[in-house]
């Protein structure tokens, strides 16, 4: 990944937005995001997204941990998640980002208030070379807007 990509992703997280890295499989996307979080001095929570293994209950637990700890949530292969999980992920991230932008220290997660650490951020990977590739096309439009490639 180029220095320009690192700067764009870091500034997206600092602005309470997310980012996505699109590239071919096996190109080191997730390792680059891990390196970026370590270089920024942030802990990260990594989640390998698989439709058959990650349901909303599992994703909610991962989100709650990352939001409360101020960790960067690194979602590998986000395009493989089930549409319902992607929809709820988008709504939850939008709520957390809005709360962070307004300076709040709590946010709603499935009807419950959870502590919100100001360093929370979300980055994702998807296989494909372009924004319109199939791996990223399954991601709901409002999550795509929050995770700018």
How would you sum up this structure, described in words?
The chain is an alpha/beta fold and 149 residues long. It is 44% helix and 22% strand. The protein contains 6 helices and 7 strands; from the N terminus they run αβαβαβαβββααβ. The protein has a 5-stranded parallel beta sheet, sandwiched between helices. A two-stranded antiparallel ribbon has the order 4-5. Helix 3 (56-69) packs parallel to helix 4. The longest helix has 19 residues, at 83-101. The radius of gyration is 14 Å and the shape is globular. The chain starts with a helix and ends with a strand. The mean pLDDT is 85.
Gist?
With 149 residues, the chain is α/β, with parallel strands linked by helices. The chain has helices at 3-14, 29-39, 56-69, 83-101, 134-137, 141-146; strands at residues 18-23, 44-48, 72-76, 106-109, 112-115, 121-127, 147-148. β2, α3 and β3 form a beta-alpha-beta unit.
Structural class: alpha/beta
Count of distinct strands:
7
Distance between the termini: 13 Å
The SSE string, one letter per element, is HEHEHEHEEEHHE
Percent strand equals 15-25%
Radius of gyration: 14 Å
Q: How do the strands of the widest beta sheet line up side by side?
A: 2-3-6-1-7
Gross morphology is globular
State the low-pLDDT regions, or none: none
- Individual helix count: 6
Major beta sheet summary: 5 strands, parallel
Query: Helicity range of the residues?
Result: 40-55%
> Could you report the average pLDDT, rounded to the nearest whole number?
85
